[in-house]
Amino acid sequence: MINIKKEENTKKEINNNINSSKDVSILKPKPIASCNYFEFNDLKKGDIKNCLFILRNIGGPYEKINIDVINIDVINVESKVNIESKDVNEKKQVSFLKLTKLEPLEKNQIDRLPLKVFFQVKALDWSKKYEAKIVARLDDIPEEVVVKLDTQTKPVNDFAKIFSIKEIKKINQLINKIEKITSAEVALVTLDSIQDIKFQNDDISKINIDNIANKLFNEWGIGKKDKNNGILFLIDITNKIFRFEVGLGLENIITSEFISNTSNKYIIPNFKNGKYAKGAYLALTDIFAEIFRSGKN
């Protein structure tokens, strides 16, 4: 009895091994990216950002690898990479996103995977949203990585990185409240220097904060079109200057005199002590109160 059971068990084990080997032979490759989603929302026009993800295979064997960049917003625009030769072959390069380099994860690895996939995004313009996806295929099995770039006007555009996340959230809430109650649109922009902003056909010798604020205000289209009720608060950290650009619909309320008083009371004292968030918040609160008192909405 004991021997028979052993024989039966042995037969079952053999059958299981045979079935397992069959499963392995038909097992398809399964590409996996270390990250499937990238979003960039802190780039100025002209800024470039380099990133990478790691591509692995957790499935069966494969014969070839292909990586494509497919633009979601523009149909039939793509860029292809041939992994076999390790060259980046571009059919038609997507303008804001491109693959730049492919490297094995380990210098001495024999297999082609894991692979480091390097890519680059470029902010081509202000007030634009871009989206594309990188599709990696092992034979015909795909893995998608979504890449988004947003240079849309946001309440707080802290390019100089002078605010904490908590401070940005607080100022965002105030600006959203201003729009909800008065319909006025406010954008706060911080720059290391106004030299960071470049517009087409700009005369470098005439670049100053007044011109930059005016052009940025108009390019972003701040304010409701039918009310011209936009306000841009631009801060240049390096040169220690700031500027308010006010839409025509609010010029009789947020006057030069009002801005001067608010600046002397809230902005200048706080900025001198490095309290940029506090100064900006108090100034915008004062502006909110002035618009609200006027009944302009």
What is the compact description of this entry?
The chain has 297 residues and is an alpha+beta fold.
Can you tell me about this structure?
- The chain is an alpha+beta fold.
- The protein folds into two domains: 31-150, Immunoglobulins (Immunoglobulin-like); 156-294, Diaminopimelate Epimerase, Chain A, domain 1 (Roll), CATH 3.10.310.50.
- It is 31% helix and 30% strand.
- The chain contains five helices and 13 strands.
- It has helices spanning 2-26, 165-182, 209-220, 256-272, 276-294; strands at 31-33, 37-40, 48-57, 65-71, 78-82, 97-104, 115-122, 129-138, 141-150, 156-158, 185-191, 230-236, 241-246.
- The chain has a five-stranded mixed sheet, with no helix packed on it. A four-stranded antiparallel sheet has the order 1-3-7-6, with no helix packed on it.
- Helix 3 (209-220) links the parallel strand 11 (185-191) and strand 12 (230-236).
- The longest helix has 25 residues, at 2-26.
- The protein is elongated, with a radius of gyration of 28 Å.
- The N and C termini lie far apart (93 Å).
- Residues 1-22 and 74-94 have low confidence and may be disordered.
